[in-house]
What we know:
seven-stranded antiparallel beta sheet, 8 helices, 18 strands
Amino acid sequence: MADGFKAEWPMDLKAPPESLEAKQPRPTDIGRDVVDPSRYYSREFMEKEWTHLWPRVWLLAGVTSDIKEPNDYVVFTHGHEQFIVVRQSDGSVKAFFNVCPHRGNRVCMNDHGSVPKFSCPFHGWQFETNGKLHRITDEETFDAGLIAHRPGLTEVRCDVIGGLIFINMDGKAPPLREWVGFPEGYIENYEIEKMNVVRHVRTEWRGNWKTGVDAFYETYHLPHIHPQTQGVMEDFSQIDLYPNGFSRMIVPIGVKSHRMSDQSSIDPYQQHMMMEAGIDPAAFKGTAKEVREAIQQAKRARGKRFELDYYDRLTDGQLTDSWASGYFPNVQIGMHPEGVFIMRFTPHPTDPERFYYDNMTLFRHVEDPGYSVPAWMGLPEGVDVTGEIRPEVEHYAIGDDVDLGEVLNQDVELVHAVQEGVKSRGFRGPIWCEQEDRLRHFHRELDRYMNGEK
């Protein structure tokens, strides 16, 4: 773009129709619904979700790079349910409820690991990693009729797409590739399977899980809650809605917000991004409007130099921008060429006004001093980014001192304030603008499940 980046609403990055970056037409039937705010705090609504929503959808349970070898496993918790996801000897992936058929004890007590067999810590029953029963302690003391069916771990439906592992509890969801609303190649082109988790934080927040989803599904709030982003990020995003509740916002990065009067001088954040891409800001002759394109060109050249062939399947925009992609119902992934940022909003097992926020930062390490970890990842000093050792999950309760980075720390307080406000007798329901179309799309899909339409 010779004239540099220009932002206007509705945001359209002008990609050709055949491109995965192409703007999707806004649905004519998107409606003007104002949903009942009780969905954010009602126990009845929460219980209805456990019947009509959670068992029937595909849930993101993990990433394949966490279970590289046979017998590697991760444990995935969703509300009161817990699952073991384990790599099989043939390379496939299976998932099981993390519950012993004997007395209901949790079989795996760690977040992840590798074992030749699963052994229940309560009475020592053992199971193969394919879920089959291996040994019953003192089997001769059981009535043979009780155990004639050889009770093993209860399997759940499991499938993989582009390095992401999903499970479905009731086994009735459509095939994963039919259910995922994104077009073919959308996920796969990033090669997430070649990225490794370099930080995994699980925190408890004061809010309903939907309050959390809503907060991250728009950039309308950026200039007010995160004004520091305006020097390197556009407030308007290209909004795209896909089938089955899936959605995306492309957040242009490397540019100044259109709200800033000075569009010429280069912001310090832009300078830092340029250095990450191998550009010397002191030698750069362009204006702030031209930084994004310069970074794209530099990254394209760097991709060739480091033989990152998957860059060839990414648009120039993908080399700078965040494709914040919503996986219905409770996941958003910020997708970047160097890595991805997975956010998962998990309901509390009993309290509709609490949820667990998982964020997993994945990075694709390149063994070269010229390839650095992008600042957007917000990683603390000293984090191992080689991917050789899977870091432990950092668990934090409400009130614990945890550093999620400047922007996310601000969001923690925001979500709590919204959760308090939606219970007010003076609040009659959210009034969403076009910049919040993803929220409307999400809640309309949620209502289809809650109303028994799916």
